[in-house]
Design goal:
- Chain A: Keywords: Nucleus.
- The complex is a heterodimer of chains A (about 260) and B (about 375).
- Chain A has about 260 residues and is of the alpha+beta class.
- In chain A, about 15% of the residues lie in helices and about 40% in strands.
- In chain A, a hairpin with a 7-residue loop joins strand 14 and strand 15.
- Chain A is elongated and about 60 Å long.
- The termini of chain A are far apart.
- Chain B has about 375 residues and is α+β, with helices and mostly antiparallel strands.
- Chain B has 2 domains: about 5-80 and about 90-130 and about 145-205, Box (Proliferating Cell Nuclear Antigen); about 220-365, Box (Proliferating Cell Nuclear Antigen).
- Chain B has helices spanning about 1-10, 20-30, 90, 100-105, 150-155, 160-165, 230-240, 310, 315-320, and strands spanning about 15-20, 35-40, 45-50, 55-65, 70, 95-100, 175-180, 185-190, 200-205, 205, 220-230, 245-250, 255, 260, 270-275, 280-285, 295-300, 300-305, 325-330, 335-340, 355-360.
- The chains are: A alpha+beta (about 260), B alpha+beta (about 375).
């Protein structure tokens, strides 16, 4: 269960939507600073060995729960999870079979309280609206970017992310004390339909984001194989973190990071 | 652009580069107990000065051949030769103030400047909840998929030394530094390798304010000792941090009679370090042994006290140094000079840098 590390500490509440073939994890509580949102879709085959779902709402169950409680249970070697009702309270029950150091079998049950969402609330769950991105670029390995942003984080609250269609990616901060620019020159841009009147491929498109939000996103380095960043100039940044093979699309975590506007 | 014109007329004051930023970063860390530092650039090298409480002065002397490339151009046009002042060249330097924390953080931007213990940072907080072993699984925790797993599982102060060997040992992170002159920022260009990212930092420089001067009168030296840094390091690390006063006591060596130093019974120790605090006191005596005290000169009984907090500022520099020279003058001014060995061998032209601390004695001990 490595994907949980990427959602780790992102938000206090999250929403999980179980359907017949995919599981979606959604973190969109507005209370979060920098407003980062995560919308992810994971094929149940890549997570669970056996999966059964039944519900009146066309076999889709959506629930809200506390991510801290969920993470605590997932840190163990969990094997069985089921939706149950205990003491009049809806819970997601995890049954963990393990071994003590002596070699004796042990079974632990964790119950995480959940709130099953009403269909009306579910209808309100919409992915944020974004215009067509200005540039798409495949990011260098996230674990290489992470230490750099970790150093930049105490220096500035805002980080400018710039990219162009020629494989150039820049992370910059500007403060009174220091200006730092980190640049990668040999990134790849995912194949797009070649347009004859494509604007200058060297043109850099930029967005200013909260350094903390970007750093939180980088925590998903544990699962990502490929990450594609899409920048909508001065508006937002969308990051698609692929779990597993790109072609196979075992799962995608979609991060929306809004752009910040600061008065110059 | 006016910048280009300036370049033609006036070359940058400093252009320097190193192939591996680690040594330079560790020298800077040795004096990083205060954020604001005064940097003086001259033909001979790069000097970083910090002061605290008008009592403690730390100076890192980084000579030009510590760098792989070092070019200095004076900012001021050459003055006409002064017949009185034949060493006008030595005074020629460029000085500015800079936030030292920022400089060190920038050098460490790729996490390769070898800072102590920061590798084990955010990583994975796996220790909070105990993991149940799956039957048939071995007891190793799920490995991290990158090198940093090594660092986070190596936690503890002992691993700091090991980090050096298991961390980035193949290639150092290179750094190029340039300073155009007063009013301009200090520019750093840092790159791990040709394929990887490059980082450009521009650190704001401020006008240098006159800093504390603590001149040490060499001819008034009452105590002079050269010893291996490891001895002093072990002694100071043993002391409880709650100590507030450190006293250094020196006694003249026993007289040499008939070519042999007569060992007087119950003779006062040549060097004694005493520390006193709320929880008690500690005394450490150094034997009259050439292996420990390589050089020892003491003209009369000496006893001066210093604030322990100031002395402990020297620990970081002491950690990486090979030899220490300890001198006290008749006013009680303590001068500690730490020899910081260069990773480059002498044949490659590497010069050892050194860091010096000067500390004023506490007044009430002066008799």
């Amino acid at each position: 269960m490595r994907f949980r590390a990427s959602i780790e500490n992102l938000q206090k509440k999250c929403i999980i939507k179980f359907s017949e073939d995919v599981m979606c994890i959604i973190c969109n509580s507005e209370a979060n600073e920098g407003g980062i949102q995560v919308w992810s879709q994971i094929k149940v085959d890549s997570l669970f060995t056996s999966y059964r779902i039944q519900s009146n709402a066309s076999n889709i169950i959506t629930m809200a729960l506390s991510s801290e409680a969920l993470l605590a249970t997932l840190k163990s070697a969990s094997t069985l999870l089921q939706l149950a009702k205990k003491n009049d309270q809806a819970v997601l029950s995890f049954e963990i079979s393990g071994m003590t150091r002596q070699g004796r079998k042990v079974r632990v049950a964790h119950d995480v309280r959940i709130e099953v969402m009403k269909p009306a609330d579910v209808a309100n769950l919409k992915e944020p609206m974004c215009p067509e991105p200005d540039v798409h670029i495949i990011l260098p390995p996230l674990q290489k970017i992470r230490p750099i942003v970790e150093r930049l984080r105490p220096m500035s609250d805002f980080l400018a992310v710039r990219a162009n269609s020629n494989g150039r990616l820049q992370l910059s901060i500007r403060t009174d004390t220091v200006n730092v620019d980190t640049e990668w020159k040999n990134c790849k841009n995912p194949n797009k339909d070649p347009e004859p009147d494509l604007p200058d491929p060297d043109e850099l498109f930029s967005v200013l984001v909260s350094t903390k939000s970007f750093f939180k996103f980088l925590n998903s380095h544990v699962v990502s194989t490929t990450t594609i960043a899409c920048i909508c100039q001065n508006h937002c940044m969308i990051l698609y973190v692929y779990v597993g093979d790109l072609a196979d699309a075992g799962g995608v975590l979609t991060f929306y990071i809004p752009g910040q506007l600061i008065d110059e | 652009m006016s910048n280009d014109d300036d370049e033609v007329q006036q070359p940058p004051v400093l252009k320097a580069s190193v192939n591996d930023v680690r040594h330079f970063a560790s020298l800077l860390r040795g004096v990083n107990f205060v954020n604001r530092a005064t940097v003086t650039i001259a033909k001979t090298g790069f000097v970083v000065i910090v002061e605290e409480a008008r009592t403690l002065l730390g100076t890192a002397y980084i000579f030009a051949n510590t760098f792989d490339e070092y070019t200095y151009h004076s900012e001021t046009p050459p003055a006409p030769q002064n017949s009185q002042d034949s060493d006008g060249d030595e005074d020629d330097n460029s000085a500015f103030e800079i936030p030292l924390n920022t400089l060190i953080e920038c050098l460490n931007i790729f996490g390769t400047a070898g800072s102590s213990g920061s590798g084990a940072g955010a990583g994975n907080a796996t220790s909070k909840y105990k993991k149940w072993k799956r039957p048939g699984e071995d007891s190793e925790p799920e490995g991290d998929d990158d090198d940093r797993g090594w660092r986070s599982s190596n936690g503890g102060s002992g691993a700091r030394g090991i980090d050096q060997y298991f961390g980035n040992t193949e290639k150092g992170t290179g750094m190029r530094m340039s300073y155009a002159g007063s009013g301009f920022p200090l520019t750093l260009l840092i790159a791990e390798d040709a394929a990887g990212p490059t980082t450009t930092c521009e650190i704001t420089t401020y006008e240098a304010e006159p800093h504390l001067q603590l001149p040490f009168e060499s001819d008034q030296t009452v105590l002079k000792i050269i010893l291996k840094s490891s001895w002093l390091r072990d002694a100071l690390s043993e002391l409880d941090p709650s100590c507030d006063k450190l006293t250094i006591i020196g006694n003249p060596p026993p007289p040499i009679v008939n070519g042999k130093q007569r060992q007087q019974p119950r003779a006062p120790p040549m060097l004694r370090i005493q520390a006193a605090g709320t929880f008690g006191s500690t005394e450490m005596d150094y034997p009259n042994d050439r292996d420990v005290l390589e050089t020892f000169e003491c003209t009369r009984h000496v006893s001066f006290s210093y604030r322990f907090g100031h002395i402990s500022r020297t620990l970081r520099a002491l950690q990486s140094s090979a030899k220490t020279s300890l001198r006290i003058d008749d006013e009680g001014l303590l001068s500690l000079q730490f020899l910081m060995p260069s990773p480059k061998s002498k044949t490659e032209g590497g010069a050892d840098a050194f860091i010096e601390f000067r500390c004023l004695a506490l007044d009430d001990e002066l008799v």
